[in-house]
Structure formats: structure tokens, C-alpha cells
Predict the structure of Quinolinate synthase.
Amino acid sequence: MATTEIAPYGGVTPDAAWAQEVRELARKRDAVLLAHNYQLPEIQDIADHTGDSLALSRIAADSDASTIVFCGVHFMAETAKILSPDKTVLIPDARAGCSLADSITADQLRAWKAEHPGAVVVSYVNTTADVKAETDICCTSSNAVDVVRSIPEDREVLFLPDQFLGAHVRRETGRDNIHVWAGECHVHAGINGPELADRAAAFPDADLFIHPECGCATSALYLAGEGTVPAEQVKILSTGDMVKAARSTSATSVLVATEVGMLHQLRKAAPEIDFRAVNERASCPYMKMITPAALLRSLRENADEVHVDAETARRARGAVQRMIEIGTPGGGE
Ligand code: SF4
């Protein structure tokens, strides 16, 4: 899906009247508003909860609300529906896709499995429900290494869809029987090694908070390995773990390698720290489709409802539950 060809819903200013109407409609609909860390600041601020995709799905499942409004991208709302099949799950704009989740289809995965009979399929949470249903174990960026370590050494592993996270897992486990799908997120892949090296040289005392989907994750570990940046300053973190690290670091400045919406939560969590993006252009156009107008429309019209058929949800739920049982699942993207 090329979001550049799709105009997001617009024409609404996120002022006090908007906020009041959103809150009022949410109350009438018995809805809980969830916002991913990459959402626009005004969407993060109006939400009941902000966080990473997995944390939000768990909050959705534990909530008493009968309706979940998931301000994020489509696979995240699907994951919430998989874990809460009896609740109404809305996404303010169903066109909000994800280039990483779209990089492998269930048909492609079935064909890949046929080439490697007996292999264990490990999928990152940034996948569609159909792909999760073909998966043995899902993983987050926090527990991907533990999930792969839990698989007997002699079993082949198919890891998908993110090649940078896959490279990280292969490096950490030292296994040579991991096959990695060549998918990537166009936003994270654009945060590259030379850019990181330049920023790290300009801010030598800064901590580096790096999401493992980034094109620069390998470079960050290389910089640490060669001593250009002290190893203790390099932290490979999921978005949820970045917020925790912001609260505990003693650094006064932090360079952040992930989607720029993350800066809003980090600055709220630790206002005294100078947070800077490694790449200020790293903005996800899909995430930014959840506009104030889209949220209002969602609540007024009960749209767009997310459906996952019962059998797909059952199979996908098994893979997600196995993920939660292994290591520290931490957060999704
Ligand atoms: S930042 Fe990348 S992985 Fe995340 S939702 Fe956007 S396209 Fe997908």
C-alpha cells in the first residue's frame, strides 16, 4: 500500500472541543483508547494508554471496556483482536498498513516452509494475522534471542520478516541454521550506519537507544566493538524498553534511532534529558494516518472495525501465547 497516494482524513484541529468530543464519544461507546508510541503527539496525549504494540494488546485484553480503539497500524489492531476475540476492535483508518508486515504473505510463508520441512517458524509481531497463523512462535524485539535459543540446536529456524532483527538474533545466538526473510521496514532501514556514526561523534557522551529493526543496529554494535562509542552507552531496545531506560539512565543526552514519534513519550518520561533523533526524517506515514479527524470519525461511526476469522485467530493466538511464555517478552515494536 503506497500511503503517499492515499490522503489521510483531515480538516479537524485537535483543540479542546475536539478532545472533549473524543472523550465523550469514548465514554458513550464504552471504549478504551490505545495509542502506539509512534502516533502523533495529540493522539498519544488523548489516549488512555500509550505503549508498544504488545503492551497495548495486553492492556486491551485486560480492559473491562467492550470496545478497543487502537491508534496504530493494522497488524497491531489485529493482534489486539486475536487476544480479545469477543471485543469490538476499531482502527481509526484501516488503510494504515505496515511495509514490514506487508513484506511477507501467508502464501509466501507456506512456500518457504515447504522448502524447509521440519523448520521452526519464528515471526516478529509485525506480521499479519494470516502469517501469525502459519507461525510456530511469535517474538518481540525483546525476546527474539530467547525464543530462538529455546529451539533445539539441530532444528532449522525460519525467522521473519525483519532482516535486521534476524541478523541481530543470528549474531547473538551464533547459530548458522537460521534462515532470515529479507524484509525490512522502510522507515527503520533508512536510519543508517554512517548517519549514526556522525551523530555519535557529534554527541560523544550521549547514550544510543537503538531499535533492532534499524539499519544502523549492526553499525551501533560495531562502533561499540571498536571502542568508538563506549559499549555501555549502546542500548538495543524495544520501544517500551526505551521508556524504561529513559527513566533509569544517568546520561544527560540520548540519541534515539527509531521512528520520531517515540521522542514524545521519551521527553515526557524524562524531561531533563536532551533526546535527539538519529534521523529526523524517520517518520512512518502509516502511523501518521491516524489523524485527529480519523479518530473522531472512528468514534462517531464505529469504524473501521477489525475482523479476524475464528480459525485464523485460534492458530495465531497459539503462536502469540508461546511468545509470552518465553524469556521476557518485553514489548513489540
Ligand atoms: S515504522 Fe515501519 S515497522 Fe513500524 S509501522 Fe511503520 S512501516 Fe511498519
